[in-house]
Amino acid sequence: MADQLDTLLDEGRRFPPSAEFAANAVATQALYDAAARDRLAFWEEQARALDWMTPWTRVLDWKAPHARWFDGGQLNVAANCLDRHLSGPRRNKAAIIWEGEPGDRRVYTYWALAREVGRAANALKRLGVRKGDRVAIYLPMVPEAAIAMLACARIGAVHSVVFGGFSAESLRDRIQDATATVLITADGGYRRGQVLPLKRIADEAVADCPSIRHVVVVRRGHGGEGDESFAEMTEGRDHWWHRLLDKESPHCPPEAMDSEDLLFILYTSGTTGKPKGIVHSSGGYLTQAAATTKYVFDLREEDIFWCTADVGWVTGHSYVVYGPLANGATVLMYEGAPDWPERDRFWKLIARHGVTVFYTAPTAIRAFMKWGTSHPAAHDLSTLRLLGSVGEPINPEAWMWYHEHVGRGNCPIVDTWWQTETGGIMITALPGVTTTKPGSATTPFPGISVELVDTTGKPMAKGGGFLTLTEPWPGMLRTIYGDDARYQETYWSRFPGRYFAGDGAKVDDDGYWWLLGRVDDVLNVAGHRIGTMEVESALVDHPSVAEAAVVGKAHELKGQAIAAFVTVKEGVKPSAELRDDLREHVARKIGAIAKPDDILFSADLPKTRSGKIMRRLLKDIAEGRALGDTTTLADPNVVARLKEMYEDKE
Ligand code: WT7
């Protein structure tokens, strides 16, 4: 952390907004002023931009750590994303422009999207889904993912989207935790030219999910019209999506939902092995998703907004689906990999569809950097006018590369800090208003109260410390599904009275925030959160493994990569085959994103006298640093030996 701090302190470049951008910007200094004058009035103003069926009677009811926003108010999230755009000129505007990895394309106007959502909502109802029921969604990046989410919102069902890259076991755990009654999946999805057999994985998961009554299958994976051989359908339980929808009316009245009714659950990793079901509300969540989309992305009627995140992550929820559609924007949605069939696929997409606002992750930007400037240079990126970054700290070099080679020196960059738990963007520049500094997320969004504290919880005006939130915000998580005690313990106990996000940060003399990464046992691999405990549990689950310790190590492209230190059981011989087998085992248990890059076999792990594994020292080893303090170790020789072995490997 200290090294990082020093490099960041040297960053002296400043990028003030251009006069031209500032003159037409959607956001203005007045937003900050209004929020500073009256935070709650500011949020009420943002909530008023939505359509409410019943007005709220109270802006905020705060009994720490439980917030109720816009209490008494009723609305329907899908109606806000669709119906209200149908009466004016937006009716025939593209809502979703979609491109599949093989190059197939579809466009849904708001009118067409509303009809599909209506059909899907009616189909869910026919399957017995009622208000409050949970629906699991396990789909590739196809329009049906957004349609399924909106269909749930329309009838008041709670969706739980599970990223299509997760394993059968991960899907099973999430379905079980939420006791979902319906699963929506696809026969397959494309990734780097391969078809990922989602339905097969789903079948494996559902075999252990007694709560699932129906599985709805989108036909995507392969074959032409009528070729349904790819997925095996279980009579009575499984249904083809297109057949179900065909029979339904496109009209489905939107359910009046209380502002605090659940909109969705989204599972995310924490410091224990069990993922947390983050619970989001309807009114508060949509208010923040919509307001941040409008101001942070300087949204205009004619924009083509492309957020590259998968709907399986919160970024996909807030900035592919809910935020943009609530604003009546046109979103681009792309199914596949950035390097398929060539490394210029993203630039091709931007040129073909005339993307104006592009929101992606530092891990992708670093990959683009590595692939070279010739790819973006070969395409017409002149429609781009604003760039965004999310998921992890963006290093100043990557920021500058993004600025020069994608933004051609004239697009503001918004580096947005937030989390699954926050629901929407929390710290960000406002384009046209904020002077940016490469590598800094700049300052809190209007109406968001952030404070730096030291280890004892004492507020600090500047310097390095922990990022905390001191006031409730509309998009905040309401609880952890089925485990409110864990909610209180995880977020509100480290610094009493404050929400602690798990991030270290630095505030500079200008009050700018520089995020320094997680300070807990959570890794950030390519912008995805993975708990060290989850990977350790997966490794220990293997019959050959006795003990495992997992740490993150700095990685040029992914930000962090996973390094595992494994002790095998008596009689097992460590080998290259076992190493491969363990990596596959982790992929099977969690998903390919959690595969360790390095696995080192060791007879012992460094432990304190009380038996606690000292991951800090393992991290020093994995990152090739001099070992930190080893005085509390039961046997200091273990770690010295490990370090030698690690350096000799390969
Ligand atoms: C963690 C949250 C929010 C959508 C994507 C990830 C890190 C996120 C930034 C940023 C530095 C960032 C933090 C945070 N993070 N955005 N702009 N600068 N760090 O959502 O999986 O809930 O992960 O991602 O460490 O705690 P998530």
How would you describe what is shown here?
This protein folds into two domains: 389 residues, Rossmann fold (3-Layer(aba) Sandwich), CATH 3.40.50.12780; 128 residues, GMP Synthetase, Chain A, domain 3 (2-Layer Sandwich). The relative contact order is 0.10. Strands 5-4-17-16-18-19-20 form a seven-stranded mixed beta sheet, sandwiched between helices. Helices cover 32% and strands 23% of the residues. Helix 3 crosses helix 4, helix 8 crosses helix 9 and helix 11 packs across helix 12. With 650 residues, it is an alpha/beta fold. The chain binds 5'-O-[(S)-butoxy(hydroxy)phosphoryl]adenosine.
Q: CATH homologous superfamily of the largest domain, by name? A: ANL, N-terminal domain
Here the CATH topology of the largest domain equals: Rossmann fold
Question: How many separate helices?
Answer: 21
Bound molecules: 5'-O-[(S)-butoxy(hydroxy)phosphoryl]adenosine
CATH architecture of the largest domain: 3-Layer(aba) Sandwich
Could you list the spans in which at least 5 consecutive residues all have pLDDT below 50?
none
CATH top level label of the largest domain: Alpha Beta
Radius of gyration: 24 Å
